[in-house]
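agent> Task received from the user: take the single chain below, predict its 3D structure, and emit C-alpha cells. No templates, no multimer pairing.
agent> Plan: (1) validate residues, (2) run structure prediction, (3) serialize to C-alpha cells, (4) report one or two observations.
agent> Step 1 OK, no nonstandard residues flagged.
tool_call: predict_structure(input=
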Amino acid sequence: MVPKKLCPGCNTEKPANIKYFIRSPRYEDNLKPLCIECTKRAESAKNRPRSKAYYAANKEEFKRKSNISKLFDPKQYFLNLARSRAKALSLPFNLTYETIPEIPDRCPVFGFTLELGVARGRLQPNSVTLDRIEPAKGYTQGNVQFLSWRANELKRNGTLEEFEQLVAFWRKQK
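)
tool_result: status=success, residues=174
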C-alpha cells in the first residue's frame, strides 16, 4: 500500500511521493508539506508583488527590449494592411516595399515618439498608422505617410475649412 500525505494547502490526501510533493531533506519523510500545485501557487503569490515592482521600475527598458520591429518587418506589415484595406474599400493601390515611406521615429504632426503595436487591444495616441493624404486617391505612391493614430484620427473626418473655423473659435475664447 502506498503511503498517503495530507496537503494543508488544499486539504487533499495524495500519495506521498515525488509525483505529488517536492523532495526536501528538511522534513522527516523527505517531502515538503505542501503539494506541488499549492507550492507553485504560494511561490507565485509571494513573488507577484516583487515582480510587479520590478516591472514598474524597469518599464521603459522592457518596452525598448520588446520592440515589435524585432519580431516582424513593420513596413511589410503596413504594406499588407494597406493592400487589404484598398481591396476592401475598392481603392487604387500601387505601393511596393520600396515605394512605401520609412516609418519615422516621431509623429510629424505632434512630435512625440511613435510606437509600433497596440496596448490593451486598442491603438494608442502614439501608435503608428499609415495615412492616405488624399483619401480618394487610395494607397498610391506619394499619397501615403506615417502619422500617429491621434493625428490620423483628428484628420479623418474634418476638412481644412472646418479646422480653420475650429481654431478661430478657440482663439476667440481665449
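agent> Step 4: summary for the user.
Strands lie at 4-7, 12-15, 21-23, 31-35, 128-132, 144-148.
agent> Done.
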